[in-house]
Amino acid sequence: MVHMERLLHLFAAAPAAESITKEPIVPFLILLLVILFVPLLFERFLKVPGLVGLLAAGVVLGPQGLRVLERGAPPMDLLPEIGLVYLMFVAGLEIDMEQFRQTRNRSLTFGSFTFLVPLIMGTAVGLIFFPGKWNTSILIGSLFASHTLLAYPIVSRLGVVKNEAVTVTIGATIFTDIGALLVLAICVAIHQGDFSATRLATLIGSLVIYSVVVLFGFDRAGKEFFKRSGDDQGNQFLFVLLAVFLAAVGAQLIGVEKIVGAFLAGLAVNDAVGEGPVKEKVLFVGSVLFIPIFFVSLGLLIDIPAFIASINSITLTLAIVTGLIVSKFLAAYFAKLIYRYKWNEMLTMWSLSVPQVGATLAATLVGYEAGLLTKEVLNSVIVLLLVTATLGPLVTSRVAPTLIDASQELEPEPVSPYWSTGETATHSFGVLVPVYNPKTEQYLIEMAALLARQAQGRILPLAIAKATAHMDAPQLEAAFKRGDTLLENATNLSRELGVEAEPLLRIDDAIAQGISRAAKEQHASLIVMGWGQRTGLRARLFGNVIDSVLWAAHCPVAVSRLLKSPKEFRQILVPVENITPQAVSVLRFVSLLAAANGAHIVLLHICDRNTTPGRVAWIRSQLSLLVDKLALPDHPEIRIKPHPNVTQAILEVAKDCDLVVIRSTRRRTSAGGLTIADTTTQLIGAIACSLIMLGEPQPASFSARSEE
Questions:
Q1: What is the structure's pLDDT at 153?
Q2: Residue pair 184/142 in contact by the 8 Å Cβ criterion
Q3: Radius of gyration of the chain from Cα atoms?
């Protein structure tokens, strides 16, 4: 009956267009269009962060503009709340607990500085503009206290994450965010009235018990669940979602804001989730849907005319922005005095702790909706976000490269051959080649044969037959016949190339797991795979074979798109950003391939056009020293190319090369939930020659922590 009435309503006398616009599905459709196109336009054409575009879209579509979206009306009554919770959960999930454990004492010290100094400064600013309102002023101070690691991808890409100053700053995030959220919870509780010392003590006691239950209970439950669920990523994903929203509801039950529970839940399941595909899916769902919707809803609150017209708000904005920047600088300077950090380390700590996105925005919105913060403060925090989100990464990109120290980058001992580590210490060099597509099989076997012959090893052609409920099913028999044909072709080809082949035909529930398990069983030293065709939304949501193998494999994985026979490779291009252990591993692989093929190696480093000649000379000397340690038969050519666009520079040099070898790097999201551009992804779609993406096995610590 209800559905019939709805249909009659749709076909009533009112025009169809007017009826449709009242449906909740229409605002949701508009949100999807905004999320899809607006960040892309702002990042590519205006060269500003995509979240600025989302805020602008909220202003244009909200009460101050077209009035298409309205807070409190479907779907803006629920999805922004989910986005707010998800934002704080991601902030906790992105903290590297392993790095935090290494320097937790110094992280606690710097965390105290970068929490208390901004808290005092922000409280002073609040009292100047809101005399006598201590509760509001302390809440403004707590907004200064937290920080977002927006520039983490920069220090990660440069290979300086293990620098103590960087690690300490990352660890301090835990203390600043938890402290800021606790201050928020207490301020909001006091503002709601009927507050006494007894109630304050009760709230603090409840918070302590609640935090212990979430941090330790969820952590243990998560590890146990992930251990028992095996490779069932769907249930693991649902467990993570259940944990975050259960923690959020639990926080509300004890009388504190749900974002406190969401952040603690992120910390709690951090170890269990690790850096696996489940975490990527969790971040993906948040970054493409819920968190962008939160930013759009935040834009609905921005009153541009009132902000421009109010001179007082402009003064307040200047005070908030200046106070934040100065207080964060003082906190980093105090840490420098105590631990005798260098100036470049201190400036890196400051630039990493300046950006205010995740916890600051979430706490501001909660304080505004509770009536503690005015619209002027909200507008000022939006400006603070834009300024610090630009200033922090900019300073980091200039200062962090100076942290690279020659003594930390290169080991004094000679570098061992690529194939003489790990599994191959007791087993011969083996190259596992999954065969599926007859069109690409020949080139893959040829490359595997070149590598195996150079290392005096063997190749392991592998065909996977997807398991069925009954072992006599016709589909399984057909898969067996097809696998036998592919393996026979691979064996004949390897015999022609003079390399021993050990064909494998395996039944497994999943292709990716079958590949990684067979590689481990056969003690393979390397997996050579063809390039998968499935990309886009479906692959990001459900993953593909390449992603799963890169995550699960115990050995390096060479994902190859070969446009001609590997025997014809004469010039191999290897882009090298910094001399990290991962870059050394790529060079070992390339040296083996080049030695087998008699190819010439070109090492390419792209630097900024403003890089000083002294810095260029230092980079060249480091690369030369690395080449000498690798003891390659053919001394590689070292090119240092100043260029504003890394991708474009690589494409220009690649025109004269037969093969480009790049390192696989995982896409990472900022705590703002928006994906950060990945040079590897851009190269894959634009490069015209053959391409190999070399993925290294995940650190053993992640799987070990998950199975404790």
A1: 63
A2: yes
A3: 28
Tokens in use for 330?
């003082």
Dump pLDDT digits (tens) for 161-213: 778 888 888 778 778 878 888 888 788 878 776 566 777 788 778 888 888 88
C-beta separation of 278 from 233 below 8 A: yes
pLDDT reading at 326 higher than 90: yes
Neighbours of 612 (CB within 10 A): 10
Considering 73-77, 235-239, 704-708, the range whose residues carry the highest mean pLDDT is 235-239
**Amino acid at the residue 500:** E
Nearest by Cα to 164 from 410, 412, 408: 408
State mean pLDDT over 630-651.
80
More reliable by pLDDT, 425 or 133: 133
Q: Full-prediction pTM beyond 0.70?
A: no
Q: What are the start-end ranges of the E strands in 509-570? A: 526-530, 557-561
CA distance 449 to 432: 11
- Rounded CA-CA distance 648/645 in Å is 5
Q: How far apart are CA 615 and CA 607, in angstroms?
A: 10
Q: Could you tell me which of 323, 359, 308 has the C-alpha nearest to residue 127?
A: 323
Q: Among 670, 655, 429, 387, which Cα is nearest to 556's? A: 429
* Dist CA 359 CA 148 (whole Å): 7
End-to-end CA distance of the chain: 55
pLDDT tens figures, 508-548: 878 888 898 889 888 898 999 887 654 444 444 334 778 77
Element (H, E) at 309: helix 304-309
Confidence of residue 596 (pLDDT cuts 50, 70, 90): confident
Give the span between the Cα atoms of 630 and 417, in whole angstroms.
8
SS3 527: strand
d(Cα 295, Cα 80) in Å, to the nearest integer?
A: 8
- Segment 113-141 shows an average pLDDT of 90
pLDDT of residue 675: 44
H/E run at residue 637: strand 637-642
Q: Which residue has the tokens 């607990």?
A: 97
Q: 422 vs 348, which has greater pLDDT?
A: 348
89 pLDDT exceeds 90?
no
**What letter represents residue 355's amino acid?**
P
Residue 198 amino acid letter: T
Token representation of residue 615 = 């810095």
CA distance 137 to 374: 11
Q: Distance (Å, rounded) from C-alpha 636 to C-alpha 473?
A: 54
Which residue has tokens 């019939």? 4
How many helices (H) and strands (E) the chain has is answered by: 33, 10
Neighbouring-strand partners of residue 433? 461
Q: Residue 597 corresponds to which tokens in the numbers above? A: 């093929």
Instruction: Tell which residue, 501, 60, 5, 91, has the closest CA to residue 264.
Output: 91
Q: Kindly give, in sequence order, each residue whose CB lies less than 8 Å from that of residue 131, ignoring residues fewer than 6 positions away.
A: none
